[in-house]
Structure formats: structure tokens, C-alpha cells
Q: What sequence folds into this?
């Protein structure tokens, strides 16, 4: 099943059911918003599935053409957004290039609490104050969870994954090292986050969802040029491991968005990277200097995943970086 | 004006208007939930004020006795919860006792993104898995903000503070140094957060709200014994400075909860502390060892602030620490 959220002027938008081929959509009848659907998933999911099947069969009378420009993030705001750094290869390259030393503990995943109040849709312009902030991107996938009880076992944790989404974890590198070295995670380093057009249930991924990983290429391009396509199979922790660590000593409320961290592959020389910082770090290691510039105003980014059937899973994020208008 | 949220079995509860003396409450007519009130504050606030005045005048027909045990956190869940560490004295004592070195930048406040999906009410039992996690408390105040535009100036930022709340930022110290030294903020170190019974508009504080600080004592007791009463005037950053730093490069969504960090005073030998870690650090400095134990199951904590008129501002947080029931 594929779901999206139509921008309708409200803060939470209007839940849509979207056809598998992403050509058609219809307003969901079983729930008005994504948050309502997640909170009542047991009751709502079979009804939404029935609407999805009717839409795919060409039997939804209210169907209209699906336009990714008309949608918000599938979950337009979240009571919890946690980002992992679950591809250890990424950290390894960064530490090597910049002589960093992150004090990791073996077997404990890196997770960071993030803001859930400022999510952008897949084609929204992305405003930021100055290119001097060293604007970067990170191609990621996130799970959306229903209620997770404190102390959930890793073996049970993945039953709480109701949907997956695609995201660009936009990062301002000029603030990142300073904030990281302080210890308290990210504030100015990680402003608004951009999400792909639709959320999909795990069954839509077929075989590609296995071992707790979304085993598909993250296809990233910059201004129409190929940038990289690392695969989700390279994750060093499964979603189950991430969830059980997060829920060790508290309940997680329905609608938690839990992201993987930037996709990254040890075979980066063949498959490239999903963020600028990593390519710049490889250049630093190879040439003693970084050559690929950070994002400038007017540049366009694109992120997409194709399923094993060649069909776009989430639709594409395709957005432009723009200068913030002065507001104060 | 004082507002609270009645537990009614729903996730967001039912908004209450509470009398100034905290003796009576009445269901709000102008908004069903706190989040709805904050999102529509301009329209809703005058109506709520009228209900408040009627209640205080004994003219609210539907009034009933206010019971802090029957309420949830005033905002039971939040799309953004950020905690500052705005009393630099606290960090200074911690760094001295444990030979830490937090890489602060002068003039930039420490802020940390936190989870907004698991807030507890003022008298809820607080479950945690094991006393070996070194359970601690931190007495704090938070502002609840309406929509804040990107780039807001410090001088304008405090106009976005609609309410203040009291909180106990429960901390598991066994995880804290490990997570802090990794750089990515807190996960297992900061589980559920406990909030005081009512939220109050800034005017309820009178003179005590000035220079961007809530200038009242944070009265903390443990098992009925005085623990400390540091004053909010000791904050090294104003709320305006914290807000403008947070909003530097993005919009903040209505309902952001922005907390001060644990109250702390350079005169700690007279006024005590608002957290165990700080008292233990002072003991470490004085005696070469910490003597005050962390929280055990069954212990009770109490936090309260009295206004300059001697009246309890927020009502009291008074909760008991208990062992988590095995859920998985």
C-alpha cells in the first residue's frame, strides 16, 4: 500500500491512497490524516488496503492524477524523529579524512533525537540563510512506527514498522563539527528535513525488505548528474536493533519516524556516496583536499529508489535550494 | 491564565481552565486540546481568558475541584521538545568534578533536541528498568511557543512565548557520559519527562518574569526532605537568546517546548541544587567521593515554584520512582 498527504492548507494535510504506479490518488476514507491512521493502524489498515486495491484496479470513482508537487511529507510533522548513523562505513571515512574519533561502543547504535516540527514535501524549495553554512544532503530511508512498548525485544521490534519513507536529511556542515564536538547533537546543523512523496507498507518492498534492511539502491543525483547509489543492505544495524535500543527504557508513541542515517557503501569507488561530505572526505584522503563544492542556491537534488521490479518505490524527492527571504 | 489537560483516555486529553489558586477547574470551551489552543492562540486566548476570569470569580457553572492526580502533562506530547543547558554554573561544577571539557563556543547556548512523544503527568509513577542506570532528576522550567519564523531576532523572540510549564527532566546518569562523549545527544540517558500540573501565561508570573528569565526559586525535595532551591535569575542566556539560536535557519512549529536545563546557582552551598549529579559533583570536589545516592525504586520527588505572592504557580510535581514491569 502507498499513502501520501495532500497539502490542503491545514498543518496535517489530507491522507491520500496512491496507486502502485504512482499515477493516481484518491482521498482516504478510513482516516483523515497520516497520524490518525498510525494511531489506529489495526482498525484502519484493512480499510486502507481495500481502498488501495480498488484504486489499483481502476475502480476508485474519486481518483485523480497524483502530483508529487501537491503533497507534503507523508507524515507532515512527528512527535518523535530519530536519526541513526547505521552505516558505519560513513563514519569510518569521515573519521579517517578529518582525524576525528567518535567514541562508539561496540554493539550500541548511534541514534540522535531530531526535530519533528519542520518537515518539507518532496518538491518544496529549500530555503537557507547562506551558502557559507556548507549545505549538504544525506539520502536515507525511515520507518514509521506505531506504539512501541518499553523494553521491546529486537526480535519483536520490526512488527511495529508500519510504513517506510524516503528522506533527504539536509545538513549544514559548517555547524556540524562544532555541535558534534559539544556532545549535545544537532541544532543549526540539521534544519528542515525533506521527505519523498509516498509512504509504503513493508510488503510493497517484497524481497528487498529482509534482514531488517531496505536492500535497494539510493539513487542520488545533483543537477541531473549521477552522484551515487549505495545500497541499504550495507546497514550495520537492523531496524529491529535500532528500535529496541531506542525503547530500552521508555515507550515510543505512535508516529515515531526512525531513519537510517546516510546510505554508505565500502565500495564507494564504484557506487559513489549519498552525501557530499563523504565524497569530499574521499577526495581529502586521495588528494589532500576536497574538490566537490557544497550546495549553492539554485542547485537541484534528486533522490529515488527503484524496486526489484524497476518501479519507483516512493516516487522521487526533487527539490531546489534557495535563499531564505529575510523574515525578521 | 492557568491551563491543564485532563486525562480522558485520549492521547491529547481534554483542555481545562484552572483557577489561579489551583482549587477549581472547568473544561475549556474555546479549544479541546492544548495543541489546538497553541495553534490558534490569537483567536483562542481572549476566549480562554474570559473563561478563566469567570472561574476565578466563582461564576463557572461547570467548575469542579482540580485534582493534580487526574491530569497529564499540560501539553501531553509535542512536535518539538528542546532542552537547553542555560545555567552555565551547572556545567562548570560538573566539568570540575569529573575533569570533563565541553567544547562550548562563547555566546552560543547549548541546546539539545529531545523526544516529544513520552511525557508524564505530575503525579504519575515513573517506571524505569534498573537502579543501576543511576536515576537522577533536574528541576526546570520550559516555555511553550507558537509558530516562530526562521531568523527571528532575539528582541522579538519572547513574544512567541505563550505559556510556561514546570518539569522534571529525569536523567539516567549511567548512560549520560557515554552518550555525551559520542556527540549525538541523549537517547537512553533521558527517557520520559515529567511535567507540572498547569501551564501559565507569562502575566501570571508578574514581576518574576523579567529579563527573559523566570526569576523564582525551584523548590526541590526528595522523600519530603529539602534538597535545593536555586533561582531562575541565574540563567546565563535569556529565553529570547535560546529561541533565536534555535530558529536561526528554520521555522519552529507551534507547540515547541523549550526548557532551561537544570536550575543551578553559584551560591549552591546556601541554596542547594536541583539535581543529584550536581550535589554529587560538589561532594566529589569537597571530599573526593560522592555520598548522595542516585534514586531508588519507591523514592518520591517534589518540585514546586511559589510566586512572589506566595501562591504555587504551577502546582507541584510529586511522583514516585517504580520498577518497570516486564513488557517484552
A:
Amino acid at each position: 500500500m502507498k499513502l501520501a498527504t495532500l497539502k490542503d492548507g491545514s498543518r496535517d494535510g489530507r491522507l491520500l491512497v496512491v496507486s502502485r504506479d504512482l499515477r493516481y490518488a484518491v482521498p482516504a476514507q478510513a482516516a483523515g490524516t497520516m497520524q490518525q491512521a498510525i494511531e489506529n493502524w489495526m482498525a484502519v489498515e484493512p480499510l486502507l488496503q481495500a481502498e488501495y486495491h480498488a484504486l489499483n484496479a481502476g475502480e476508485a470513482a474519486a481518483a485523480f492524477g497524483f502530483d508529487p508537487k501537491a503533497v507534503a511529507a507523508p507524515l507532515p510533522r512527528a512527535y518523535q524523529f530519530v536519526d541513526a548513523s547505521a552505516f558505519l562505513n560513513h563514519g569510518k571515512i569521515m573519521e579517517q579524512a578529518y582525524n576525528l574519533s567518535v567514541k562508539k561502543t561496540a554493539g550500541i547504535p548511534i541514534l540522535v533525537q531530531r526535530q519533528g516540527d519542520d518537515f518539507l514535501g518532496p518538491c518544496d524549495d529549500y530555503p537557507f540563510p547562506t551558502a557559507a553554512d556548507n549545505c549538504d544532503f544525506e539520502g536515507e530511508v525511515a520507518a514509521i512506527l506505531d506504539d512501541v512498548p518499553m523494553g521491546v525485544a529486537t526480535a519483536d521490534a520490526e512488527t511495529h514498522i508500519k510504513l517506510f519513507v524516503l528522506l533527504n536529511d539536509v545538513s549544514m556542515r559548517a555547524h556540524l563539527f562544532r555541535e558534534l564536538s559539544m556532545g549535545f547533537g544537532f541544532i543549526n546543523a540539521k534544519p528542515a528535513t525533506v521527505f519523498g512523496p509516498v509512504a509504503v507498507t513493508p510488503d510493497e518492498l517484497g524481497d528487498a525488505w529482509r534482514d531488517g534492511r531496505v536492500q535497494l539502491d539510493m539513487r542520488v543525483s545533483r543537477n541531473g548528474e549521477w552522484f551515487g547509489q549505495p545500497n541499504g543492505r550495507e546497514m550495520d544495524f537492523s531496524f529491529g536493533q535500532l528500535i529496541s535500543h531506542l525503547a530500552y527504557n521508555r515507550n515510543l508513541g505512535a508516529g515515531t519516524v526512525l531513519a537510517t542515517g546516510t546510505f554508505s557503501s565500502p565500495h564507494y569507488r564504484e557506487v559513489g556516496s549519498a552525501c557530499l561530505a563523504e565524497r569530499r572526505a574521499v577526495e581529502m584522503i586521495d588528494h589532500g583536499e576536497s574538490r566537490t563544492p557544497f550546495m549553492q542556491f539554485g542547485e537541484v537534488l534528486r533522490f529515488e529508489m527503484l524496486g526489484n521490479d524497476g518501479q519507483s518505490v516512493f516516487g522521487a524527492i526533487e527539490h531546489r535550494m534557495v535563499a531564505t527571504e529575510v523574515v525578521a
User: Anything to note?
Assistant: The radius of gyration of chain B is 19 Å. Residues 41-56 of chain B form the longest helix (16 residues). Chain B touches chain A through 59 residues (CB under 8 Å).
